[in-house]
Amino acid sequence: MKNNLLYKAALLLLTGSMASCSSSDANVGTEASVVTEPMENPKVLVFSKTSGFYHESIPDGIAAFQKLGQENGFTVDTTKNATVFVQDSLKQYDAVVFLSTTGDVLDSAQQVGFEQYIKNGGGFMGIHAATDTEYEWPWYNRLVGAYFESHPEQQKAIVRVQDKSHPSTSHLPEAWERFDEWYNFKDINPEVNVLAKLDETTYKGGKNGDNHPIIWFHEFDGGRAFYTAGGHTSESYTEPLFVQHLLGGVKYVLGEKGEAISTVSTK
After folding, report:
1. For residue 227, which of 266, 189, 261, 259 has the smallest C-alpha distance?
2. What kind of fold does domain 43-148+188-194+210-260 have according to CATH?
């Protein structure tokens, strides 16, 4: 009887030990099966439809964005077709760039689609004539930050950088002299964060006075928006400081996905 009890006790100890080993092995297997998915490359849509003035520099701007994408790890699609502005199509993009768009470029349904895209966290970047766009759409005015009013002849001017903590301006000199077509603005959204102002004492034809914003950004309606008024000329898109400025703007509107993008590689 005593031997039988000892046998049962030994059997119970052995069974518990095997169960413990089995549980440990199962945990190792579970941990080994966990795989971290790599973050997909950001995807940017460059939109360049015009219903008004057509800027001959648009193809140069498109080429510059394609080159930036290749060198800095983000995908660039380009289109002049507004039918992409529906939720099913837009949701594949992390940011949309309005590259010198002009006039009425989206119909009412496309406007709704774009508003929903921004509300879902999409990024928006406007370049040059993006402010010469959609004058009858108040939501767009607040998004882009202002409307174009007029411009003098193309000439050199000094851009006074106010904030160098932003990726689009961190590399710029405080007094940035360059040649471009300098816009005067109306209906400026007071809630935008101004990164740089135009010094009207350094050129002829300015109409905004001492407070002449020329580069700005803000968070708006669930998304992020950035605007730069430069980019009228074809030469802008091979100008190293300006191209790096564009890359910094892309990085901002991409949000978390923009953190992995370099703001140095602009060969």
Report:
1. 189
2. Rossmann fold (3.40.50)
